[in-house]
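A reminder from the course coordinator: this example appears on the midterm review sheet, so study it carefully.

Given structure:
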């Protein structure tokens, strides 16, 4: 409401710019009253006729209503407590029966916290039980066999249902095993409307499965505290109930009337009228008198309209501006494990199918292909019912991704696979892809998401999480979000600022009052429904929206809501508006969430598993692709690769990868990652063997390092001493170091050194705990474990500011305002403490690698050992200082980081993000700048000025900050909720300090990729070395370009690898995905000796979009296909090579 509207105090009602108000009673204007009076007076001095009903005398005083008192009275009519026996609540139930003559209960307690399917559970022995019994412990499952007989006296009731409340989640199954109704417990969603044909006097059988956990897991009070393993749950209701539907309808009427009284502007006649209508209902109500309930509904209709008990309330023909859609946000894991989510999905979606049968206008929006797949596999009958509702247009899948994933930490290829897996699943099961990316609850949004959405056939994006910002308020509701490459998606953030709205009057009101894009468009989405096991929308919520619409059409002022449409239809209108005239504001770059910054660091081992699995999959797919197109006896393991990607993408769910789940989830992911690496290792060995590049070690084999990167690299590897003619430096008892180099993909050859040009890196002890590591490129001075000097010899430049120390370990108090695993607050910097100097010893003294080890005691229980290494400076090696740490961590609410002050000045630092880089401030000029005091990066962060810079590279960390000249890598946190043991125990990780000439460039990109994917040694038969080298080097990418080859794989629909579900393509194809990494237009050339027929540029889903010219050239008598690629800044491009 604008200030100008408030200023019109003489008006009886406040103008509404969006609705045409229809007041309950038309109030004549003063001018019309005067005109009418004059016409009756005629001329002369005649007095106007008096109103005979208006008495001359008045001896009955009547006071002004005290508004606050009357509004408090409104609450009493439906409140629990001392008056519920005589208020409307006393009328909610017409009849109830729970005696054993009508309700017979038996139970089976499932041992070992197992979750057996229906078919197995019902085979077990059931024992008699009754209401009032308790069941546990936490996470256990109990099955109930229920036999009911509806009493004859209830046969004429309009509805009879079964109410079950075990204070826990549950599911009703029919006798033949169909999951038909989810139960929440604790008074929420406790009813199952069984077939009304059961009112026949016969006994009927069904089952109830209960899970001994609440909607938010098993914490006793504060939901984010670690779960109590010993909770029990009491069966409070197991009753046959005939609800009083008129009383229940009046309850909803009255609820919305009370909201209108409180939430309409206090000076408006609409608010006062609502108060009067509500009090009129109370005044005539008599407990136990059904007619007063019916009369109350008639009174309510004067304000709400007479159509609110039907979906026809939405058929008034008036234009709505708020579009309601049901939703059930089910976290794929959070305060419960994955296995419980599988049941939550079935409970919630079965309940929604029931509601669709009751409410024609109800539409339900649901994301996450993984959840659909679980339902399809574990609850096939419920899945068939869902599919039927999909085809009716009522159950609306959305999102196009495998799960609602984190977007900060997954690699670019992981984000791509989320879309490939999700879109292909939805298309294969339901016939079409999603057009809207749905991600309401993720902790920040990668700057490349708009581009990936467009490449995945989606043009719209829905979220709302930025409303959680704890420093600045995000400025838009509907806007164009623009990616690093210029791609855009139309984005909407609901002004109700939730994706689990209760469908209250206030939610509808806020859908306009908090709308930030009103100058461009006044429409909004209202996403309502109970999430996380609450089952989605309830009957109450749908009924409340009917009343809200009734108010809009009858009284006005409240924004007009509608139901029965889809999210896609809502976006269709916005897109047409934008296409016709560029209407909406733009936002460029990342959508940084000013909250939950600790999630870049929490649950360190889980994040390490993510990074390592992504790298493993890159190499596996590339090697398996070359094997499948060259070796007739080898089959590309498409199903196994898909299964592995599904698990990786599952573990990237937006609470799992960020570290905000309970401990049970991380024990599951530990097992999943272990299985992934075991399977990946086996598949890689098979693929290498097929290429002739792998074998068991024998006298007929040679250990060779394999480079899967297309650029030149030189580095140290460890090889068996038995394979070496001469040993330059020992690495362990049975392994020696070998310096190897590769000009591109394929085998790396050992560097041969002339006697007079032997490599040299050395460690010198200058004094106690002061050591120098040096080679021809760098000179590193280490004092007490910290670096006090780093000379970059190419420029004779000191990197460390005078008096500062790099690799300085620092620790902070880490007590956020509430969300322990999630948050780190800006005030934590005020508790900074440097760890004391460690003890330093020499571990390796060259000539290939020099290493010192630093042992630092953090506390009585915690310590860290860090090996600082420098390699010989040969052919590009030895240009960074590497750190390898082993950490024993037993702290409580502490944050460990490592600092690198550098003598470099820039107001912006660069951070690797998916398929590119981001620049973020190094200063705190504004609150928007200061809010980014902790940010997420991928493999590197860089601070450069003209001519020089420093990159900090890591192999499994994501949290970072650059403040002024200090670069700070986040290492470890120790929150105690929701996992009391988060990050406790042993950890290992690596990072590096890489000084370089010029601004951040390809050298940082290559070095970070190499650091994260060290050369792996394989035993190769002498007889196949030459042929295997040719096959490993099937495709080359011209060096010196910022275009990166990020993925090589087989075509999804190639007929020889397809796993079914979608049409196949004839022949074989190879998919190559590239991106421009530094922000400038770039060109490169791809060469391959594959028999390429045609090349197509595709989207992520591998739809051919345009044919690309291929040039065939002859090189050394062999036909080579060359493909020239030019990409705009930060463009992601996928090419399909049809063989």
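Designed residues:
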């Amino acid at each position: 409401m604008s200030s100008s509207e408030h200023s019109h105090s003489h008006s009886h009602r406040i103008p509404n710019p969006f609705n045409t108000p229809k007041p309950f009673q038309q109030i004549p204007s003063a001018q019309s009253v005067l005109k009418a009076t004059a016409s009756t007076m005629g001329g002369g001095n005649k007095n106007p006729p008096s109103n005979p009903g208006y008495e001359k005398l008045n001896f009955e005083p009547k006071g002004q209503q005290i508004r606050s008192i009357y509004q408090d009275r409104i609450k009493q009519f439906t409140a629990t407590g001392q008056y519920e026996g005589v208020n409307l609540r006393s009328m909610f139930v017409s009849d109830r029966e729970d005696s054993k003559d009508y309700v017979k209960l038996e139970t089976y307690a499932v041992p070992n916290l197992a979750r057996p399917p229906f078919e197995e559970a019902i085979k077990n022995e059931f024992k008699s039980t009754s209401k009032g019994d308790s069941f546990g412990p936490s996470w256990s499952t109990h099955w109930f066999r229920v036999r009911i007989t509806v009493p004859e006296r209830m046969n004429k009731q309009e509805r009879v249902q079964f109410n079950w409340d075990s204070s826990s989640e549950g599911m009703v199954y029919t006798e033949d095993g169909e999951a038909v109704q989810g139960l929440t417990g604790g008074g929420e969603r406790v009813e199952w409307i069984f077939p009304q044909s059961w009112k026949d006097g016969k006994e009927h059988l069904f089952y109830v499965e209960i899970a001994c956990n609440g909607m938010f897991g098993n914490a006793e009070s504060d939901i984010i505290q670690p779960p109590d393993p010993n909770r029990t749950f009491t069966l409070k209701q197991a009753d046959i109930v005939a609800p009083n539907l008129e009383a229940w309808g009046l309850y909803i009427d009255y609820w919305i009337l009370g909201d209108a009284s409180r939430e309409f502007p206090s000076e408006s006649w609409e608010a006062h009228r609502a108060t009067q209508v509500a009090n009129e209902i109370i005044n005539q109500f008599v407990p136990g008198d059904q007619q007063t309930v019916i009369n109350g509904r008639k009174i309510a209709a004067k304000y709400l309209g007479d159509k609110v008990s039907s979906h026809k309330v939405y058929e008034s023909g008036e234009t709505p501006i708020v579009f309601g859609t049901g939703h059930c946000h089910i976290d794929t894991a959070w305060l419960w494990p994955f296995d419980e989510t599988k049941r939550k999905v079935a409970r919630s979606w079965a309940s929604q199918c029931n509601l669709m049968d009751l409410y024609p206008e109800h539409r339900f929006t649901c994301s996450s292909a993984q959840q659909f797949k679980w339902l399809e596999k574990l609850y096939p009958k419920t899945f068939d019912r869902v599919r039927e509702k999909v085809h009716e247009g009522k159950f609306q899948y959305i999102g196009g991704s495998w799960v609602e994933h984190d977007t900060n930490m997954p690699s670019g290829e992981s984000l791509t696979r989320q879309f490939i897996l999700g879109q292909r699943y939805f298309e294969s099961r339901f016939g079409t892809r999603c057009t809207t990316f749905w991600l309401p609850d993720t902790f920040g949004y990668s700057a490349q998401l708009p581009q990936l959405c467009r490449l995945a056939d989606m043009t719209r994006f829905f979220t709302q999480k930025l409303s959680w910002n704890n420093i600045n308020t995000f400025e838009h509701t509907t806007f164009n979000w623009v990616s690093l490459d210029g791609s855009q998606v139309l984005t909407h953030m609901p002004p109700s600022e939730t994706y689990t709205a209760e469908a209250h009057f206030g939610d509808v009101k806020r859908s306009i009052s908090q709308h930030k894009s009103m100058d461009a468009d006044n429409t909004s989405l209202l996403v309502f429904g109970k999430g996380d096991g609450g089952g989605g929308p309830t009957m109450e919520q749908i009924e409340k929206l009917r009343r809200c619409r009734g108010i809009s059409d009858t009284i006005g002022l409240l924004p007009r809501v509608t139901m029965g449409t889809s999210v896609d239809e809502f976006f269709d209108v916005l897109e047409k508006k934008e296409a016709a005239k560029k209407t909406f504001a733009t936002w460029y770059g990342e959508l940084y969430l000013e909250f939950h910054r600790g999630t870049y660091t929490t649950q360190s081992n889980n994040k390490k598993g993510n990074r390592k699995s992504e790298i493993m999959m890159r190499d596996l797919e590339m090697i398996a692709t070359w094997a499948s197109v060259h070796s007739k006896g080898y089959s590309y393991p498409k199903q196994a690769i898909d299964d592995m990607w599904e698990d990786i993408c599952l573990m990237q769910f937006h609470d799992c990868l960020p570290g905000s789940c309970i401990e049970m989830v991380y024990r599951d992911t530990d097992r999943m990652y272990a299985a992934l690496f075991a399977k990946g290792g086996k598949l890689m060995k098979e693929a290498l063997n097929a290429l002739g590049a792998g074998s068991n070690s024998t006298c007929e084999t040679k250990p060779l390092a394999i480079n899967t990167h297309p650029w030149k690299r030189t580095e140290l590897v460890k090889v068996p001493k038995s394979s070496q003619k001469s040993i330059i430096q020992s690495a362990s008892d049975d392994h020696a170091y070998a310096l190897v180099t590769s000009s591109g993909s394929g085998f790396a050859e050992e560097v041969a050194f002339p006697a007079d040009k032997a490599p040299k890196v050395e460690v010198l002890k200058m004094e106690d705990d002061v050591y120098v590591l040096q080679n021809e490129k760098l000179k590193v001075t280490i004092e007490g474990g910290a670096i006090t000097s780093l000379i970059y010899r190419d420029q004779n430049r000191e990197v460390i500011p005078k008096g500062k120390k790099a690799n300085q370990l620092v620790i902070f108090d880490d007590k956020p305002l509430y969300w322990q695993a999630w948050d780190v607050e800006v005030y934590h910097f005020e508790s900074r403490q440097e760890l004391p100097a460690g003890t330093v010893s020499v571990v390796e003294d060259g000539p290939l690698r020099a290493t010192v080890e630093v042992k630092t005691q953090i506390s009585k229980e915690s310590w860290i050992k860090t090996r600082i290494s420098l390699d010989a400076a040969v052919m590009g090696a030895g240009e960074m200082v590497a750190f390898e740490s082993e950490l024993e961590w037993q702290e409580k609410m502490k944050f460990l980081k490592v600092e690198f002050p550098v003598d470099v000045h820039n107001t912006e630092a660069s951070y690797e993000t998916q398929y590119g880089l981001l620049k973020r401030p190094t200063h705190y000029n504004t609150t928007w700048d200061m809010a980014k005091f902790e940010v997420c990066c991928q493999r590197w962060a860089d601070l450069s000025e003209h001519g020089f810079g420093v990159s900090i590279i890591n192999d499994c960390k994501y949290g970072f900050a650059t403040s002024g000249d200090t670069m700070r890598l986040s290492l470890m946190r120790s929150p105690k909720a929701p996992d009391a043991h988060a990050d406790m125990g042993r950890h290992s990780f690596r990072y590096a300090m890489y000084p370089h000439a010029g601004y951040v460039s390809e050298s940082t990109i290559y070095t970070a990729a190499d650091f994260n994917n060290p050369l792996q040694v394989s035993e190769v038969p002498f007889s196949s070395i030459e042929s295997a080298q040719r096959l490993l080097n099937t495709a080359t990418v011209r060096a010196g370009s910022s275009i990166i080859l990020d993925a090589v794989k087989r075509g999804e629909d190639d007929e020889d690898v397809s796993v079914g579900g979608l049409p196949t393509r004839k022949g074989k194809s190879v998919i190559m995905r590239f991106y421009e990494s530094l922000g400038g237009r770039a060109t490169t050339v791809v060469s391959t000796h594959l028999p390429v027929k045609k090349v197509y540029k595709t989207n992520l889903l591998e739809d051919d979009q345009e044919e690309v010219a291929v040039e065939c050239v002859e090189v050394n008598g062999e036909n080579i296909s060359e493909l020239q690629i030019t990409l705009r800044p930060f463009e992601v491009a996928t090419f399909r090579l049809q063989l």
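The first strand starts at residue 93 and ends at 97. Residues 1-43 have pLDDT under 50 and may be disordered.
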